[in-house]
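We now fix the convention by which a protein and its fold are recorded. These numbers are not coordinates but entries in a learned vocabulary of local backbone shapes. A record is reproduced here so that you can trace the correspondence yourselves:
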Amino acid sequence: MTRVEWSSEHLVFSPPLDSDHRKLFEQIEKVRRALEPGETAHEPGLDLWRLSRMLSMHFASEERLMRESRYPALKWHRRQHQAGLNKMGRVRQAARLDSGERLDARLEQFASWFKDHIHLADRMLAAHLRNDQRERLVS
């Protein structure tokens, strides 16, 4: 699996979301490094748990913002989050089964999904949040 790095191409231009995304990228990379051949420093279980917890907290935060701003695509975006949580569940299941290749593949699938989610769903949300903020300033 290739490195998972945050870069400016992943910006959604919402500081709280961008900060969370950067931290999630860092945690995905920690897990990826733990899976490298010859890596004996530690098992990826704790890092996977942290990633899963961070992801759940991030999604809850986004969903709170969506409710507060009356985001019209809330249900669709929430389904996207559920898909991401399902993918994370498959990563954790592969880790429990101690399946190196399967775990690597599942993590890569999750990382790819996460990037796609940011580039579409989260950019849509961030644009809505900026527009909502502008409307509140004007009224």
